[in-house]
Specification:
The complex is a heterodimer of chains A (about 350) and B (about 500). In chain A, the strands form 2 sheets. A two-stranded antiparallel sheet of chain A has the order 1-4. Chain A has a two-stranded antiparallel ribbon with strand order 2-3. Chain A is globular and about 55 Å long. With about 350 residues, chain A is mostly helical. In chain A, about 70% of the residues lie in helices and about 5% in strands. Chain A has one domain: Orthogonal Bundle (ABC transporter involved in vitamin B12 uptake, BtuC). Chain A is built from 15 helices and 4 strands. In chain B, a hairpin with a 2-residue loop joins strand 16 and strand 17. The longest helix of chain B has 16 residues. Chain B is an alpha/beta fold. Classes of the chains: A mainly alpha (about 350), B alpha/beta (about 500). At the A-B interface, helix 9, helix 10 and helix 15 of A face helix 10, helix 11 and strand 20 of B.
Chain lengths: ~350, ~500
């Protein structure tokens, strides 16, 4: 499950982290690490969700809008509707999966383009979220209290110190956010599903070459729909975590751009938007890198308005470097493989000649 | 006689494992129509690629207007006035006729704005269309035109390039009789304007009707030429064949059993209105011969459920299968090794083992988790039975040679108890050694009781390997040959739809 790309990404994270820590030692404070970890937990699951769709060669743009709409719905259900939070969570995740089934069916059965389907979904869900609350902010009223739910979703626990104490040591006192634990569990499960299960193999096969997958007897439509169901179901789960983290949701802006964070993390993690490539561990590392960058902007005193610009530049450079590297590797491989394949007298690259003169006429 | 303006001298071209052209010489004089005929794989398309500057010959030379060269570039070919009307037309459906004719060479107006001068385009195109007798104007949208009309647009494009030689590759294969007649009249008109034509066709009647001279290719060499007086159906077929192909047939090790695959009244989208009836018995290799475009691949796809049959029924071992879903076919033990290995048969980036296990992945899994060990064991077993030459089954399928890739595509199905295997051009682009290995594998499979339907355009293969041959012509089975009737001549007669013309199939 560990790929070369993942190691490259890990090295990049360590380098960036070291540089930041040297410039501003506060980076390594327990509180800062714990907060950054919480952010990673909050954004990691939607990135993993996105990965399931991207691996099939699709894209899910409605992630942010789902986060807003289902977040609003969840809070409204438990605060104003008096529904038990566990039931409300199950309901919200169920609706999310249903949304995924619709997106998937439109893509795989009707044959619409994933970009179009999910772009429309984005607009619809965002609109519905705003209509549902009449554009008002939804939050926990005075005195509303859900201790178990809050502990589960937004709490933090000391994990390292007690374990270390068992072995008679003084462990580091870092409060591990439960969102990070949730991410860890999702990562393991998603990693096993994508990299070890039959479904995962089918997803990669469809992303690489849907035609060949069909000729091998894979139910390509059903598997594609499953990818969207998993994606939107996980997104719905994440919507609950985010709702409990922010505690108040203004439906016009909550979750804005989250689909892009998710896509960015997946791309950093080695997923190709053409499908068929990538690793779950890579997505998580991609999320970590994005959050470290965000943290870097804060700690190094860079104006926070430059936040997006920094993120965009790093992703661009990272993907560019990766591409150049693999092209270089391929070229040296190709050179080693067939040095004497070309017929004598034939132009080295026949295409070049044509292209040049075509332009001149 | 007018001297030729284009000459090919001793053109040779090898591809790995195949000699596509073996010393072909050809001269084209102004204003003559040359019929170019030959079986599938005789070297026609490679020769055309050499003329178009797409493929450089290994040896030999080309002379255009007295200038001798080792190879043409695409631009040399254009400058020499060579134009193509391809089987698959290369037109932009979303543009009008005038824009298509002058695509990439638009006349401009508006100074630095560089706007397309639509009016000038149309004025230039209109007389060309008139010359060809077109019933549509330069502003007609190509998407509204019929195939025959689109062909005329291609020819107009060739004329606008001052073409002196128009090469038509199977131009009539999808035309109605009336449209064909009109196209032949257009070729007459071009000839009298001094434009030369190379007319490639499997339809010998049309070649007979329009050609001044016929060049017959066989096995990458010119088998013979016929002048106007000597052109006849029989003479062309005699030149196209001419080998005795029989020696290497391995007889089946068991008598054929019950019908394993029964196809009744099957109609595919390629030839609506035509029906196919076909029976393949257990333990036999049935060859499905025919020319390119006769509907064999479409039939195979529909039998496997990739496409839906428009009509008809398919039974495997007596029980019917639902169309339109490969999984229904797979469940009954009917498998397809498709023609296009790279696009449909294999996932080139997946490892050999992953490719082999893909259709049967569930049986290599426990609790829906793939057991890599079971997967590798299966792949290793198949590698040994089929003799797949790859250092490790974890290598990507894309790095294998064509023959080994084909073995992998076959191996996918072998662990799944096949009843019927359809192979579409299983040895295309494969070297001789691998070919005979694959033939051996197919015979062994048949002897184990599997029914094999092998689509092949390779005459040697069809005659050498199969126990019976069904020949397909324009969407129906035009004849069924038993072993004593096997001959290239009989297959070819049925393939060009000339069975009625031939008095009877001669037993050889």
């Amino acid at each position: 499950m560990i790929f070369k790309k993942d190691i490259g990404l890990l090295v990049l994270i360590l380098v960036v982290g070291t540089v930041v820590a040297i410039i501003n030692p506060r980076f390594l404070l327990a509180a800062n690490i714990s907060n950054t970890a919480n952010q990673v937990g909050l954004f990691g699951i939607i990135a993993i969700a996105q990965a399931f769709v991207i691996v099939t060669g699709g894209i899910e743009l409605s992630v942010g809008a789902i986060v807003a709409m289902l977040g609003v719905l969840f809070i409204d259900l438990i605060v104003n509707g008096g529904v038990h939070w566990a039931l409300a969570a199950a309901l919200v995740i169920g609706i999310g999966m249903l949304m995924g089934a619709v997106h998937g069916a439109l893509v795989a059965k009707v044959g619409m383009q994933p970009f179009v389907v999910t772009l429309c979904a984005l607009l619809i869900y965002r609109g519905l979220a705003r209509y549902y609350t009449e554009d008002a902010t939804v939050g926990f009223g005075f005195g509303a209290s859900f201790p178990t739910l809050e502990w589960l979703t937004a709490g933090r626990s000391e994990l390292f110190a007690p374990i270390a104490r068992l072995f008679g040591h003084e462990g580091p006192t870092i409060a591990v956010p439960h969102t990070l634990i949730a991410l860890a569990i999702v990562t393991v499960v998603a990693g096993v599903v994508l990299h070890r299960s039959v479904l995962g193999r089918y997803l990669f096969a469809i992303g690489k070459n849907e035609e060949a997958a069909r000729f091998s007897g894979i139910a390509t439509a059903r598997i594609t729909i499953a990818a969207y169901v998993i994606c939107c179901g996980l997104t719905a789960f994440n919507a609950i975590l985010l709702a409990m983290y922010t505690r108040s949701i203004s439906p016009a802006v909550h979750g804005n751009f989250y689909e892009l964070y998710a896509i960015a993390a997946a791309v950093l993690g080695g997923f190709s938007l053409r499908g068929g490539e990538g690793s779950i561990l890579g997505v998580v590392l991609g999320t970590v890198l994005l959050q470290v960058l965000q943290n870097l902007v804060n700690l190094l005193g860079i104006p926070s308005s430059l936040n997006f610009a920094v993120m965009g530049s790093v992703i661009l450079i990272g993907v560019l470097a990766d591409q150049q590297f693999s092209r270089y590797r391929q070229r040296s491989l190709g050179r080693a493989r067939r040095p004497r394949d070309r017929p004598a007298g034939a132009p080295e690259r026949p295409g070049v000649d044509v292209a040049r003169t075509d332009g001149a006429t | 006689m007018v001297p030729p303006f284009l000459e090919l001298i001793g053109i040779r071209k090898r591809y790995p494992g195949v000699v596509a052209l073996n010393g072909v010489s050809l001269a084209v004089r102004p204003g003559e129509v040359i019929g170019l005929v030959g079986e599938n794989g005789a070297g026609k398309s490679t020769l055309m690629k050499v003329l178009g500057g797409v493929v450089a010959p290994d040896s030999g030379s080309l002379r255009t207007d007295g200038v001798e060269r080792a190879a043409l570039t695409v631009n040399d070919a254009m400058a020499a006035g060579i134009a193509f009307v391809h089987q698959e037309l290369n037109l932009f459906e979303n543009l009008d006729v005038a824009a298509n004719v002058f695509i990439g060479r638009e006349m401009l107006t508006g100074g630095f704005l560089k706007l397309v001068d639509t009016r000038a385009l149309r004025q230039r195109v209109a007389p060309l269309l008139e010359r060809l007798g077109c019933d549509f104007g330069p502003d007609a949208m190509v998407e509204r035109l019929s195939l025959a009309q689109r062909q005329l647009v291609e020819i107009a494009k060739a004329l606008s390039l001052q073409a002196r030689l128009v090469i038509m590759d199977e131009p009539t294969s999808s035309l109605t009789i009336a449209e064909t007649e009109r196209l032949l009249r257009v070729t007459d008109g071009l000839r009298s304007d001094g434009v030369s034509i190379i007319f490639i066709s499997h339809r010998l009647g049309e070649v007979e009707r329009c050609a001044d001279r016929v060049v017959v290719l066989r096995d990458g060499a010119v088998a013979g030429e016929l002048d106007r007086a000597g052109i006849s159906h029989a003479a062309m077929i005699r030149l196209m064949i001419g080998r005795e192909l029989k020696g290497n047939h391995v007889p089946p090790g068991r008598p054929p059993g019950d019908a394993a695959l029964e196809v009744r009244d099957a109609t595919t989208g390629a030839h609506p209105g035509r029906t196919v009836d076909l029976t393949v018995r257990e333990g036999e290799i049935l060859g499905l011969a025919g020319l390119v475009g006769s509907g064999r691949t479409e039939l195979a796809r529909a039998l496997f459920g990739i496409d839906r049959l428009l009509a008809g029924s398919v039974r495997v071992a007596g029980s019917p299968i639902d169309g339109g879903d490969p999984r229904a076919a797979i469940e009954r033990g009917l498998y397809l090794v498709p023609e296009d290995r790279k696009r449909c048969g294999l996932l080139l980036d997946f490892s050999v083992a992953q490719n082999i296990s893909l259709p049967s992945l569930r049986s290599h899994a426990r609790a829906l988790l793939v057991s890599t060990a079971a997967e590798l064991r299966n792949a290793q077993r198949q590698k040994e039975t089929l003799g797949i030459r790859v250092p490790a089954v974890t290598a990507a399928a894309g790095v294998l040679s064509g023959g080994n890739q084909q073995k992998v595509a076959l191996a996918k199905w072998l662990s799944m108890k096949p009843r019927v295997i359809i192979l579409d051009e299983p040895t295309r682009g494969i070297d001789v050694g691998s070919k005979s290995e694959i033939y051996g594998l197919l015979r062994a499979l048949a002897d184990s009781g599997v029914a094999i339907l092998m689509i092949s355009s390779d005459m040697e293969e069809v005659i050498g390997v199969c126990d019976r041959i069904a020949v397909m012509h324009e969407g129906r089975i035009s004849g069924l040959l038993e072993r004593p009737q096997f001959s290239e001549r009989n297959v070819l007669h049925l393939a060009v739809g000339a069975a009625a013309a031939a008095p009877e199939l001669e037993a050889t």
